[in-house]
């Protein structure tokens, strides 16, 4: 037993662990009481029937917590860092007078697990970056990812135009997103089923005025007697509510297809969508993660904007066609009575409804509309919420790609303030703001080429989109609604 304990105490595994954590090295204890109580040692005792100095109990390790180096512990538990030998080879073989003149190094990454090379660029940034990426693959294989980012705290711009750049180095397994797990598939399926249920509930709520009178009387009259009405009467009612549910689901599925169609030619992998149910709009949209590193900001912008554009196109088509069908007397049997005050929930959509249906139809207590109007309205509102420039929403990703993280921080702070004050989204501002804070507040990680410009027309498209988003989410106040003839304003 003593020989085994001595071998364990001198093993390289114990030595390595103790040296990385700066722990006291374990030693074999003697039979004396003073040595048995010493911290950081093996304990052994004499057995009454056994050989003196030989313990019947197994040896154990005891370390003092005060001797643990927390920095070393975090390094041990944190992501694996870049090898110093590889850093030395990269500096010697990649950087130089014709590519990038290195002046200093800094930690790079969320926990400083990478290296940021700071210096002076010696050519066109895209050409130098492509050359460095190629040479890095030849030198280290697929071990690392190289990022071109803006130099932190730089003074002035690059003499060739644009921001000064630096190059960040991270291990591939640290910088790339992990694969979709089985639990994520299960959660995605459960969320989708809940979203289907919430969409059906939205359709039923929109058709509640056409509920069979026998059922309404039975459940609302406290003096009702006799057996409950035949539940078969509910089937036609539920079937009439399904078009709204189909429309809302179609918009969201179209939204996700837009993301995937934009990502496929650029060879960017996306996660399965995690749909978010909501009983007011049917759904709050979906969370779709990037499962591969984005090559540049243009790719981030195009993929982020493709989904909202597809969803908005289908939503507005449904909304406008529904308004046209609402003004057709031949389809009166398919219309749904809704309070006219609902049209005051959106400045843009309220004005479009007023222009299509006319003053007399809108200036009443209730308005008869086609179910497509409800589906289109909910789809446009959900799309507008997801285009807000904050966090890793579609709008936040697009803004980060077009204007950078600093601009995203400023716009995000403004967006949170407007949501908190109820200026955007009306009664939905609070639940939406909480959802973003919990699930979508973190900006997207940098692209491999996080410097190159997205172009003027992409910025212009984003500005127009954000302007339309604001018009969609700003509600009409009573005075303006009365002047524009949107809904019937009641004075008390």
Walk me through the structure.
- 50% of the residues lie in helices and 10% in strands.
- With 492 residues, the protein is an alpha+beta fold.
- It folds into three domains: 76 residues, no CATH class; 92 residues, 2-Layer Sandwich (Gyrase A, domain 2), CATH 3.30.1360; 297 residues, no CATH class.
- The strands form three sheets. Strands 1-2-4-3 form a four-stranded antiparallel beta sheet. Strands 5-6 form a two-stranded antiparallel ribbon. Strands 7-8 form a two-stranded antiparallel ribbon.
- Strand 1 and strand 2 form a beta hairpin.
- Helix 11 packs across helix 15, helix 14 crosses helix 18 and helix 15 packs antiparallel against helix 16.
User: What best-fitting shape do the alpha-carbon axes yield?
Assistant: elongated
Taking the alpha carbons of the first and last residues, their distance comes to: 92 Å
Secondary structure class reads: alpha+beta
SSE sequence, one letter per element: HHHHHEEHEEHHHHEEHEHHEHHHHHH
**Strand tally, please?**
8
Helix count, per DSSP? 19
- Poorly predicted segments: 4-53
How is the biggest beta sheet arranged?
A: 4 strands, antiparallel
Domain tally: 3
Based on CA atoms alone, the radius of gyration comes out at 32 Å
Tell me the strand order in the biggest sheet: 1-2-4-3
Average predicted confidence as pLDDT: 82
Helix content: 40-55%
Indicate the proportion of strand residues. Answer: 5-15%
Family: Belongs to the peptidase M50B family.
Transmembrane segments: 182-204, 233-254, 274-294, 306-325, 369-388, 408-438, 459-477
Domain Peptidase M50: 245-404
GO biological process, one term: proteolysis
């Amino acid at each position: 037993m003593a020989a085994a304990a001595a071998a364990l105490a001198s093993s390289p595994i114990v030595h390595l662990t103790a040296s990385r954590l700066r722990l006291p090295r374990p030693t074999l204890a003697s039979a004396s009481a003073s040595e048995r109580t010493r911290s950081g040692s093996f304990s052994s005792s004499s057995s009454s029937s056994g050989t003196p100095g030989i313990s019947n109990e197994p040896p154990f390790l005891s370390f003092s917590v005060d001797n643990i180096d927390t920095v070393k512990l975090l390094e041990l538990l944190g992501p694996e860092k870049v090898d110093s030998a590889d850093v030395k080879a990269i500096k010697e073989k990649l950087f130089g007078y014709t590519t990038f003149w290195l002046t200093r190094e800094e930690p790079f990454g969320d926990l400083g697990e990478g290296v940021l090379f700071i210096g002076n660029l010696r050519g066109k940034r895209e050409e130098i970056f492509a050359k460095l990426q190629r040479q890095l693959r030849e030198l280290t294989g697929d071990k690392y990812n190289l990022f071109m980012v803006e130099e932190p705290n730089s003074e002035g711009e690059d003499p060739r135009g644009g921001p000064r750049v630096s190059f960040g180095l991270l291990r591939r397994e640290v910088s790339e997103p992990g694969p979709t797990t089985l639990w994520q598939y299960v959660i995605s399926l459960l969320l989708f089923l809940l979203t289907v249920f919430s969409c059906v509930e939205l359709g039923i709520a929109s058709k509640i005025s056409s509920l069979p009178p026998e059922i309404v009387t039975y459940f609302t009259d406290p003096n009702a007697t006799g057996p409950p009405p035949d539940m078969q009467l509910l089937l036609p009612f539920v079937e009439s509510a399904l078009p709204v549910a189909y429309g809302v689901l179609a918009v969201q599925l179209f939204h996700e297809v837009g993301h995937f169609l934009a990502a496929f030619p650029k060879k960017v992998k996306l996660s399965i969508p995690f749909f978010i149910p909501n009983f007011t709009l049917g759904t709050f949209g979906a969370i779709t993660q990037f499962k591969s590193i984005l090559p540049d900001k243009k790719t981030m912008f195009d993929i982020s904007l493709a989904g909202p554009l597809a969803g908005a196109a289908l939503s507005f088509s449904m909304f406008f066609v529904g308004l046209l069908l609402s003004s057709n007397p031949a389809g009166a049997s398919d219309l749904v009575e809704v309070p006219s005050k609902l049209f005051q929930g959106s400045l843009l959509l309220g004005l479009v409804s007023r222009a299509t249906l006319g003053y007399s139809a809108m200036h009443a207590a209730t308005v008869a509309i086609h179910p497509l109007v409800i589906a289109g309205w909910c789809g446009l509102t959900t799309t507008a919420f997801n285009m807000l420039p904050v966090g890793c929403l579609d709008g936040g990703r697009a803004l980060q790609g077009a204007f950078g993280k600093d601009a995203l921080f400023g716009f995000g702070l403004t967006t949170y303030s407007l949501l908190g004050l109820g200026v955007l989204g009306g009664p939905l501002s609070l639940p939406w703001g909480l959802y973003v804070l919990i699930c979508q507040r973190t900006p997207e990680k940098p692209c491999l080429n996080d410097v190159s410009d997205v172009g003027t027309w992409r910025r212009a498209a984003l500005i127009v989109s954000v302007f339309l988003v604001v018009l969609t989410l700003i509600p009409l106040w009573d005075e303006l609604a009365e002047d524009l003839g949107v809904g019937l304003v009641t004075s008390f």
